[in-house]
Amino acid sequence: MIIAAAGPAARLLKNVFPDNDCIIFGDYNIRYSKGNHLVRTILWQIPKVLFHIVREHHKVKSIVKKYNIDTLISDNRFGLWNRKIRTVYVTHQLFIKSPTENRMIEKWLQNIHFFFIKKYDVCWIPDLQGDFKLSGTLSGKSTIPANARYIGLLSDFCDGPPATMPRYDVCAVISGPEPQRSIFQQLVMEQLKKSEKKAVVILGMPAEEKICTTEKNITVFNYLPADEIKKYFMCSEIVIARAGYSTIMDLVVTGRKAILVPTPGQTEQEYLAAYLKHKKIFFSVSQKDFDLDTALTNSADYSGVFVPCDKPMLQKIILSTI
Questions:
Q1: Structural domains of the chain in order of their starting residue, each with its CATH number
Q2: C or N terminus of the chain, fewer CB within 10 Å?
Q3: DSSP one-letter string for 40-67
């Protein structure tokens, strides 16, 4: 197996799969501004994204030839299809939310996305096949492409929740793009220090070695492998995290309660946080309005949800489509 990734994801995958070849791919480097110009900031970057799509499509041709690849799985990267091999596209976000919630823009984005999806042999949607969709209208808004298949939830935490007595009041996972990641980290750390809550904070910053520091009531890790993150999920009363879909799947397969704080300007996260709050599953609050004590009080009215992974069924679906 050969891994291709960029930035922090590449460092993380190298730590998880040290014996595998790792190809460094260029990142899309989408920036999220600090102020009130998020829409303009993102729209101005569309030409750059299209350039990266074309470049990665040409790059994958040489990679396929060099490594004699027969199957390629793309995690939401538009340009990695190749007609000479079997290609799979993975996404939960078939229907892209526009920053302004403009229906014409969203239809335009959907058509572009479907154009790229149809270039692949199959599209895996990591969501549930029934009426309830964990990603809401992102994966189940209307007719999906003919090559798309729901494959169930994907998580490193799929072994089921063990019975664990809580040892921490809060587990906070700090992740996402800069500068919002650092802003969120400072916000959470300042409020945890003022509280009497016993907390563990996982910064999600892959490095060569795991670093642990302790200050007052807070234990901080620069990063943790998946099995250790699960351990801290399971021994904490509640998790504070971004509203990224991978994190949401981890929360659901472990049945944890959570407070979601979407990354400002990421329309997908903002939608997921609002959708799951409306469903009374996870409490959510915007970053600018985040107050630890208020969020912990309000989260008592939200139940969380537990959906066990069906690994045999997942493997059967995946193997039947590649």
A1: 31-153 (no CATH), 168-301 (3.40.50.2000)
A2: N
A3: HHHHTTHHHHHHHHHHHHHHHHHHHHHH
